[in-house]
Amino acid sequence: MVRVSFGKFAPKIQNKKAAAEYAAQHGSANDMHKAHMLLVSEEHTKPIQAFENYVRSNVINVLTIPWDRGGSSLLPARCIDKFMSQISKLRYEHDALVADWLAKYDDIIEEAKGKLNGDFNAARYPSREEVSKKFTMTVSYSPLPDSGDYRIDVSKELMEEVASQTKRDAESRFDAARVELRQRLIDKLEHLADRCKAMNDNDKSKLY
User: Which of 106, 161, 180, 186 is most buried, with most CB under 10 Å away?
Assistant: First the structure.
């Protein structure tokens, strides 16, 4: 089983005032109308949304079989290599799109300030670092359902291949976690080294 999901920063908030004014204008009840305000113009989110649609239409819908409403799909054994190869390339494309979006973040906020005018509130916009965490492309693997499930009729070979891939995916996640912890330590040590270098050269208590 495989599931591909995306996350992005395309915030919008309810505009109760606009909904109430519209309802009053047409003499209808407030609870029959909804309105929202975009904090980021759709023109900036369209490229990433188009990318997500491409992945679903040209990879997920072509190489997998829909399984449940939660987004999980059955990945046939013959498609595993092709699926993983394409997903690997698409991750780079996704990262490039996100990097381009983040590079323009300050301009995006400035544009929103002009378009929203009196409705603009800087507190609604997280830092670039926080926003970067909202852009995600996640591919998760899980074991196949029990062989007694009436929806499944696959070979033992396919089941073993998916199980093997699930194990490799788990090991990859552990490796990534170890690398991240290692990098965190390096970053802290480099920060300490920079602080030490910034001390007065005549200070005999300088640390190295």
Answer: 161
